[in-house]
Amino acid sequence: MADSEVFTNGERPFYGQKLLPHLLREVSKSDPQKPWALVFETSDIFKGFRTVNVRDISNAVNATAWWMHNQLGRSDHFETVAYIGISDIRYEIVHLASINCGYKLLCISVRNSDSGYLSLLEATKCTKFVCSSELLAKGKHIKDLVPNLQLVQLPSFDEMLSGNIADYPYDKIFAEAENDPVLICHTSGSTGAPKPITLTNGNWAVIDNLRKIPKTLGRKNQDWSLFNYENRDCFLSSFPPFHATGMIAMALPLLYNSVIVVPPPDRPATGESCLEIMHVLERHHRTLRGLLVPPTVLEQLVQEPDGLQQTSKLDFVMFTGGPLAPSVGDRLSQVTDICQLIGSTETGPLPGLVPERKNWSYFEWQPFYKIDMEAWADDAFELVIRRCRLFTARLTKNSGQ
Protein backbone atom coordinates (compact mmCIF):
# COMPACT_ATOMS: atom_id res chain seq x y z
CA MET A 1 0.00 0.00 0.00
CA ALA A 2 1.32 3.42 -0.91
CA ASP A 3 1.77 5.96 1.87
CA SER A 4 -0.60 8.28 0.03
CA GLU A 5 -3.49 6.00 0.93
CA VAL A 6 -2.91 6.86 4.58
CA PHE A 7 -1.03 10.15 4.54
CA THR A 8 -2.81 12.31 2.02
CA ASN A 9 -0.56 15.07 0.66
CA GLY A 10 2.07 14.20 3.25
CA GLU A 11 -0.27 14.93 6.16
CA ARG A 12 -1.16 12.55 8.93
CA PRO A 13 -4.48 10.73 8.70
CA PHE A 14 -7.53 11.90 10.61
CA TYR A 15 -7.10 11.57 14.36
CA GLY A 16 -8.70 8.33 15.49
CA GLN A 17 -8.00 6.64 12.14
CA LYS A 18 -4.33 5.81 12.50
CA LEU A 19 -2.51 2.50 12.59
CA LEU A 20 0.56 2.58 14.81
CA PRO A 21 2.96 0.99 12.27
CA HIS A 22 2.05 3.56 9.61
CA LEU A 23 2.26 6.45 12.03
CA LEU A 24 5.70 5.32 13.19
CA ARG A 25 6.91 5.03 9.61
CA GLU A 26 5.61 8.49 8.71
CA VAL A 27 7.04 10.26 11.77
CA SER A 28 10.40 8.51 11.37
CA LYS A 29 10.62 10.03 7.90
CA SER A 30 9.23 13.49 8.63
CA ASP A 31 10.77 14.05 12.09
CA PRO A 32 13.36 11.32 12.79
CA GLN A 33 15.11 13.23 15.59
CA LYS A 34 11.90 13.70 17.56
CA PRO A 35 12.73 12.40 21.07
CA TRP A 36 10.61 9.48 22.25
CA ALA A 37 12.13 8.55 25.59
CA LEU A 38 14.71 9.49 28.19
CA VAL A 39 15.86 6.14 29.52
CA PHE A 40 17.62 5.65 32.84
CA GLU A 41 19.45 2.40 32.18
CA THR A 42 21.07 1.68 35.57
CA SER A 43 20.12 1.96 39.21
CA ASP A 44 22.65 4.79 39.56
CA ILE A 45 20.26 7.50 38.45
CA PHE A 46 22.85 10.25 38.70
CA LYS A 47 24.79 8.68 35.83
CA GLY A 48 22.14 10.25 33.63
CA PHE A 49 19.89 9.02 30.86
CA ARG A 50 19.95 7.89 27.27
CA THR A 51 17.88 9.79 24.73
CA VAL A 52 15.98 7.54 22.32
CA ASN A 53 14.42 9.20 19.27
CA VAL A 54 11.77 8.12 16.77
CA ARG A 55 14.33 6.92 14.26
CA ASP A 56 15.88 4.68 16.92
CA ILE A 57 12.48 3.15 17.68
CA SER A 58 11.63 2.75 14.00
CA ASN A 59 14.94 1.02 13.27
CA ALA A 60 14.56 -1.23 16.30
CA VAL A 61 10.99 -2.14 15.35
CA ASN A 62 12.00 -3.05 11.80
CA ALA A 63 14.97 -5.10 13.02
CA THR A 64 12.81 -6.89 15.58
CA ALA A 65 10.06 -7.59 13.05
CA TRP A 66 12.59 -9.21 10.69
CA TRP A 67 14.05 -11.11 13.64
CA MET A 68 10.59 -12.38 14.66
CA HIS A 69 9.86 -13.29 11.04
CA ASN A 70 13.01 -15.43 10.92
CA GLN A 71 12.67 -16.92 14.39
CA LEU A 72 8.92 -17.46 14.67
CA GLY A 73 7.54 -16.94 11.19
CA ARG A 74 4.78 -14.58 10.14
CA SER A 75 1.23 -15.11 11.42
CA ASP A 76 -1.75 -14.88 9.11
CA HIS A 77 -4.38 -15.40 11.82
CA PHE A 78 -3.28 -13.29 14.79
CA GLU A 79 -1.49 -15.99 16.74
CA THR A 80 -0.48 -15.08 20.26
CA VAL A 81 3.18 -14.45 21.02
CA ALA A 82 4.04 -13.87 24.67
CA TYR A 83 6.77 -11.59 25.96
CA ILE A 84 8.34 -11.23 29.37
CA GLY A 85 11.25 -8.92 30.06
CA ILE A 86 12.64 -6.25 32.30
CA SER A 87 10.69 -3.00 32.35
CA ASP A 88 12.35 -1.20 29.48
CA ILE A 89 11.41 0.30 26.13
CA ARG A 90 11.71 -3.04 24.34
CA TYR A 91 8.13 -3.79 25.36
CA GLU A 92 6.91 -1.11 22.97
CA ILE A 93 9.33 -2.28 20.27
CA VAL A 94 8.14 -5.88 20.53
CA HIS A 95 4.53 -4.68 20.52
CA LEU A 96 4.93 -2.74 17.27
CA ALA A 97 7.03 -5.49 15.68
CA SER A 98 4.36 -8.06 16.59
CA ILE A 99 1.68 -6.00 14.84
CA ASN A 100 3.86 -5.87 11.73
CA CYS A 101 4.27 -9.66 11.79
CA GLY A 102 0.58 -10.37 12.27
CA TYR A 103 0.70 -11.43 15.93
CA LYS A 104 -1.10 -10.22 19.00
CA LEU A 105 1.30 -9.68 21.89
CA LEU A 106 0.60 -11.15 25.31
CA CYS A 107 2.38 -9.08 27.97
CA ILE A 108 2.91 -11.36 30.94
CA SER A 109 3.56 -10.04 34.42
CA VAL A 110 6.73 -11.23 36.11
CA ARG A 111 4.66 -11.47 39.29
CA ASN A 112 2.38 -14.30 38.15
CA SER A 113 2.33 -17.69 39.82
CA ASP A 114 3.01 -20.86 37.84
CA SER A 115 -0.72 -21.53 37.69
CA GLY A 116 -1.22 -17.97 36.42
CA TYR A 117 1.27 -18.49 33.61
CA LEU A 118 -0.35 -21.78 32.64
CA SER A 119 -3.83 -20.26 32.69
CA LEU A 120 -2.86 -17.32 30.47
CA LEU A 121 -0.92 -19.39 27.93
CA GLU A 122 -3.77 -21.88 27.68
CA ALA A 123 -6.50 -19.25 27.45
CA THR A 124 -4.68 -17.40 24.66
CA LYS A 125 -3.55 -20.58 22.84
CA CYS A 126 0.02 -19.31 23.03
CA THR A 127 2.82 -21.55 21.73
CA LYS A 128 5.49 -18.89 21.06
CA PHE A 129 7.34 -17.13 23.83
CA VAL A 130 9.93 -14.33 23.75
CA CYS A 131 11.98 -13.24 26.75
CA SER A 132 14.79 -10.80 27.40
CA SER A 133 18.21 -12.14 28.41
CA GLU A 134 17.73 -10.77 31.92
CA LEU A 135 14.71 -13.06 32.44
CA LEU A 136 15.92 -16.06 30.46
CA ALA A 137 15.81 -18.24 33.59
CA LYS A 138 12.17 -17.26 34.09
CA GLY A 139 11.46 -18.05 30.44
CA LYS A 140 13.07 -21.49 30.74
CA HIS A 141 11.06 -22.18 33.87
CA ILE A 142 7.82 -21.33 32.04
CA LYS A 143 8.89 -23.54 29.12
CA ASP A 144 9.34 -26.41 31.57
CA LEU A 145 5.71 -25.90 32.56
CA VAL A 146 4.60 -25.97 28.90
CA PRO A 147 6.92 -28.32 27.00
CA ASN A 148 5.55 -27.47 23.52
CA LEU A 149 6.32 -23.77 24.03
CA GLN A 150 8.82 -22.31 21.56
CA LEU A 151 11.18 -20.06 23.53
CA VAL A 152 13.46 -17.48 21.94
CA GLN A 153 15.66 -14.80 23.51
CA LEU A 154 15.11 -11.20 22.43
CA PRO A 155 18.14 -9.19 21.25
CA SER A 156 19.29 -6.26 23.36
CA PHE A 157 18.28 -2.75 22.34
CA ASP A 158 21.74 -2.06 20.93
CA GLU A 159 21.60 -5.32 18.96
CA MET A 160 18.25 -4.26 17.55
CA LEU A 161 19.78 -1.04 16.26
CA SER A 162 22.49 -2.99 14.43
CA GLY A 163 20.04 -5.40 12.75
CA ASN A 164 18.13 -5.27 9.46
CA ILE A 165 16.42 -1.88 9.50
CA ALA A 166 14.76 -2.10 6.10
CA ASP A 167 11.05 -1.35 6.43
CA TYR A 168 9.12 -4.46 7.35
CA PRO A 169 5.96 -4.48 5.19
CA TYR A 170 2.63 -3.69 6.80
CA ASP A 171 0.06 -3.04 4.11
CA LYS A 172 -3.27 -2.75 5.89
CA ILE A 173 -5.44 0.35 6.06
CA PHE A 174 -7.44 1.44 9.08
CA ALA A 175 -10.84 0.42 7.69
CA GLU A 176 -9.77 -3.22 7.40
CA ALA A 177 -7.52 -3.39 10.47
CA GLU A 178 -9.50 -1.43 13.08
CA ASN A 179 -10.70 -4.56 14.84
CA ASP A 180 -7.52 -6.61 14.44
CA PRO A 181 -6.34 -7.91 17.85
CA VAL A 182 -2.88 -6.56 18.59
CA LEU A 183 -2.30 -6.71 22.36
CA ILE A 184 -3.34 -8.87 25.30
CA CYS A 185 -3.08 -7.48 28.81
CA HIS A 186 -4.37 -9.35 31.82
CA THR A 187 -5.95 -8.78 35.19
CA SER A 188 -3.90 -9.21 38.34
CA GLY A 189 -5.36 -12.59 39.27
CA SER A 190 -5.90 -11.46 42.86
CA THR A 191 -9.40 -13.00 42.88
CA GLY A 192 -8.69 -16.05 40.73
CA ALA A 193 -6.86 -16.92 37.54
CA PRO A 194 -5.61 -13.83 35.64
CA LYS A 195 -8.02 -12.94 32.86
CA PRO A 196 -6.62 -12.03 29.42
CA ILE A 197 -8.05 -8.84 27.90
CA THR A 198 -7.58 -8.43 24.13
CA LEU A 199 -7.13 -4.94 22.71
CA THR A 200 -7.36 -3.95 19.05
CA ASN A 201 -6.05 -1.26 16.74
CA GLY A 202 -9.32 0.49 17.54
CA ASN A 203 -8.34 0.82 21.18
CA TRP A 204 -5.25 2.79 20.16
CA ALA A 205 -7.37 4.89 17.81
CA VAL A 206 -9.57 5.85 20.77
CA ILE A 207 -6.52 7.08 22.67
CA ASP A 208 -5.51 9.11 19.62
CA ASN A 209 -9.05 10.47 19.29
CA LEU A 210 -9.32 11.87 22.81
CA ARG A 211 -7.86 15.22 21.74
CA LYS A 212 -11.11 15.83 19.84
CA ILE A 213 -13.32 15.83 22.93
CA PRO A 214 -14.69 19.38 23.24
CA LYS A 215 -13.29 21.60 25.97
CA THR A 216 -15.29 22.92 28.89
CA LEU A 217 -14.79 26.65 29.44
CA GLY A 218 -12.24 27.31 32.15
CA ARG A 219 -11.46 23.61 32.69
CA LYS A 220 -8.96 21.02 31.49
CA ASN A 221 -9.95 17.64 30.11
CA GLN A 222 -8.61 14.72 32.11
CA ASP A 223 -7.56 12.07 29.61
CA TRP A 224 -4.43 11.04 27.69
CA SER A 225 -4.47 14.30 25.72
CA LEU A 226 -3.09 15.96 28.87
CA PHE A 227 0.25 14.59 27.66
CA ASN A 228 0.19 16.69 24.49
CA TYR A 229 2.84 19.32 25.22
CA GLU A 230 3.73 22.24 22.97
CA ASN A 231 7.47 21.98 23.56
CA ARG A 232 7.92 18.21 23.64
CA ASP A 233 8.26 18.25 27.38
CA CYS A 234 8.51 15.14 29.54
CA PHE A 235 6.40 12.99 31.80
CA LEU A 236 7.58 10.19 34.04
CA SER A 237 5.74 6.86 34.15
CA SER A 238 6.69 4.21 36.67
CA PHE A 239 4.04 1.67 35.66
CA PRO A 240 5.57 -1.58 34.40
CA PRO A 241 4.99 -2.16 30.67
CA PHE A 242 3.13 -5.43 31.29
CA HIS A 243 0.45 -3.25 32.92
CA ALA A 244 -2.03 -1.69 30.47
CA THR A 245 -1.26 1.80 31.80
CA GLY A 246 2.45 1.15 31.29
CA MET A 247 1.92 0.03 27.70
CA ILE A 248 -0.18 3.10 26.91
CA ALA A 249 2.43 5.36 28.48
CA MET A 250 5.16 3.83 26.29
CA ALA A 251 3.14 4.63 23.14
CA LEU A 252 2.03 8.17 24.07
CA PRO A 253 5.10 9.88 22.51
CA LEU A 254 4.02 8.51 19.12
CA LEU A 255 0.44 9.73 19.49
CA TYR A 256 1.06 12.96 21.39
CA ASN A 257 3.79 15.58 21.59
CA SER A 258 5.53 14.32 24.71
CA VAL A 259 8.61 12.41 25.84
CA ILE A 260 8.38 9.55 28.32
CA VAL A 261 10.93 9.26 31.10
CA VAL A 262 11.67 5.59 31.79
CA PRO A 263 13.03 4.78 35.29
CA PRO A 264 15.77 2.17 35.81
CA PRO A 265 14.52 -1.34 35.07
CA ASP A 266 16.48 -3.01 37.86
CA ARG A 267 14.82 -1.33 40.84
CA PRO A 268 11.18 -0.59 41.68
CA ALA A 269 10.27 3.08 41.37
CA THR A 270 9.90 4.88 44.69
CA GLY A 271 9.30 8.44 45.78
CA GLU A 272 13.03 8.76 46.40
CA SER A 273 14.05 7.50 42.94
CA CYS A 274 11.46 9.72 41.24
CA LEU A 275 12.83 12.71 43.10
CA GLU A 276 16.37 11.81 42.00
CA ILE A 277 15.16 11.63 38.40
CA MET A 278 13.49 15.02 38.76
CA HIS A 279 16.80 16.52 39.94
CA VAL A 280 18.76 14.97 37.06
CA LEU A 281 16.27 16.21 34.47
CA GLU A 282 16.42 19.68 35.97
CA ARG A 283 20.20 19.62 35.85
CA HIS A 284 19.99 18.77 32.12
CA HIS A 285 17.40 21.50 31.50
CA ARG A 286 14.64 19.05 30.61
CA THR A 287 11.17 20.16 31.63
CA LEU A 288 9.10 17.56 33.47
CA ARG A 289 5.39 18.30 33.28
CA GLY A 290 3.72 15.32 34.94
CA LEU A 291 3.99 12.09 36.90
CA LEU A 292 2.05 8.93 36.06
CA VAL A 293 2.63 6.70 39.08
CA PRO A 294 0.90 4.46 41.63
CA PRO A 295 -0.36 6.26 44.75
CA THR A 296 2.35 4.68 46.92
CA VAL A 297 5.01 6.58 44.96
CA LEU A 298 3.24 9.89 45.64
CA GLU A 299 2.90 9.01 49.31
CA GLN A 300 6.64 8.41 49.47
CA LEU A 301 7.48 11.47 47.40
CA VAL A 302 5.87 13.95 49.80
CA GLN A 303 8.00 12.52 52.62
CA GLU A 304 11.22 13.48 50.83
CA PRO A 305 12.86 16.73 52.04
CA ASP A 306 12.12 18.72 48.86
CA GLY A 307 9.47 16.42 47.40
CA LEU A 308 6.66 18.96 47.57
CA GLN A 309 8.86 21.74 46.26
CA GLN A 310 9.81 19.72 43.19
CA THR A 311 6.22 18.59 42.68
CA SER A 312 5.09 22.21 42.64
CA LYS A 313 6.90 22.59 39.30
CA LEU A 314 4.62 19.99 37.65
CA ASP A 315 1.35 20.59 35.83
CA PHE A 316 -0.16 17.54 37.47
CA VAL A 317 0.37 14.20 39.14
CA MET A 318 -1.75 11.29 37.87
CA PHE A 319 -2.32 8.04 39.69
CA THR A 320 -4.30 4.83 39.37
CA GLY A 321 -4.35 1.37 40.89
CA GLY A 322 -5.59 2.30 44.35
CA PRO A 323 -6.59 5.19 46.64
CA LEU A 324 -4.30 8.02 47.65
CA ALA A 325 -3.99 8.75 51.35
CA PRO A 326 -6.21 11.80 52.06
CA SER A 327 -3.48 13.58 54.02
CA VAL A 328 -1.10 13.21 51.07
CA GLY A 329 -3.67 14.38 48.55
CA ASP A 330 -4.43 17.41 50.70
CA ARG A 331 -0.74 18.38 50.70
CA LEU A 332 -0.19 17.73 46.99
CA SER A 333 -3.31 19.67 46.01
CA GLN A 334 -1.76 22.78 47.51
CA VAL A 335 0.98 22.77 44.86
CA THR A 336 -0.31 20.96 41.74
CA ASP A 337 -3.32 19.36 40.08
CA ILE A 338 -4.20 15.80 41.05
CA CYS A 339 -5.71 13.43 38.49
CA GLN A 340 -6.95 10.00 39.48
CA LEU A 341 -7.89 7.60 36.72
CA ILE A 342 -10.92 5.32 36.83
CA GLY A 343 -11.68 2.76 34.18
CA SER A 344 -10.83 -0.77 33.12
CA THR A 345 -8.38 -2.59 30.89
CA GLU A 346 -11.16 -3.03 28.33
CA THR A 347 -12.22 0.63 28.21
CA GLY A 348 -9.13 2.45 29.36
CA PRO A 349 -9.55 5.40 31.73
CA LEU A 350 -12.87 7.19 31.48
CA PRO A 351 -12.44 10.77 30.23
CA GLY A 352 -13.24 13.39 32.81
CA LEU A 353 -12.29 16.87 33.92
CA VAL A 354 -9.25 17.71 36.01
CA PRO A 355 -10.87 18.40 39.38
CA GLU A 356 -10.51 21.71 41.10
CA ARG A 357 -7.76 21.33 43.67
CA LYS A 358 -10.11 21.55 46.64
CA ASN A 359 -12.04 18.63 45.13
CA TRP A 360 -9.02 16.50 44.27
CA SER A 361 -10.49 13.33 45.82
CA TYR A 362 -13.56 13.36 43.54
CA PHE A 363 -14.15 12.22 39.98
CA GLU A 364 -15.75 14.80 37.73
CA TRP A 365 -17.32 13.24 34.65
CA GLN A 366 -16.66 14.57 31.19
CA PRO A 367 -19.87 16.49 30.35
CA PHE A 368 -19.67 15.42 26.71
CA TYR A 369 -19.79 11.76 27.76
CA LYS A 370 -23.17 10.28 28.61
CA ILE A 371 -22.36 8.86 32.03
CA ASP A 372 -25.19 7.97 34.40
CA MET A 373 -24.93 6.79 37.99
CA GLU A 374 -27.94 4.48 38.20
CA ALA A 375 -29.37 3.43 41.54
CA TRP A 376 -28.43 -0.19 42.18
CA ALA A 377 -29.06 -1.07 45.82
CA ASP A 378 -29.48 1.01 48.97
CA ASP A 379 -26.83 3.76 48.68
CA ALA A 380 -24.90 2.02 45.87
CA PHE A 381 -24.94 3.24 42.29
CA GLU A 382 -23.71 1.68 39.05
CA LEU A 383 -21.75 3.68 36.47
CA VAL A 384 -23.37 3.34 33.04
CA ILE A 385 -22.02 4.85 29.81
CA ARG A 386 -24.65 5.71 27.22
CA ARG A 387 -23.89 5.71 23.53
CA CYS A 388 -24.43 9.20 22.13
CA ARG A 389 -24.84 9.25 18.34
CA LEU A 390 -24.28 13.02 18.10
CA PHE A 391 -21.05 12.84 20.13
CA THR A 392 -19.83 9.77 18.22
CA ALA A 393 -20.39 11.57 14.93
CA ARG A 394 -18.47 14.58 16.21
CA LEU A 395 -15.47 12.46 17.20
CA THR A 396 -15.34 10.63 13.89
CA LYS A 397 -15.44 13.85 11.89
CA ASN A 398 -12.03 15.16 10.87
CA SER A 399 -10.94 18.07 13.03
CA GLY A 400 -7.79 18.87 11.08
CA GLN A 401 -4.35 19.14 12.59
Automatic annotation (TrEMBL):
InterPro entries: Adenylate-forming_Reductase (IPR051414), AMP-binding_CS (IPR020845), AMP-dep_synth/lig_dom (IPR000873), ANL_N_sf (IPR042099). Keywords: Phosphopantetheine, Phosphoprotein. This is AMP-dependent synthetase/ligase domain-containing protein. PANTHER family: ENZYME, PUTATIVE (JCVI)-RELATED, PHENYLACETATE-COENZYME A LIGASE. It comes from Cryomyces minteri. Pfam families: AMP-binding. Residues 37-350 form the AMP-dependent synthetase/ligase domain.
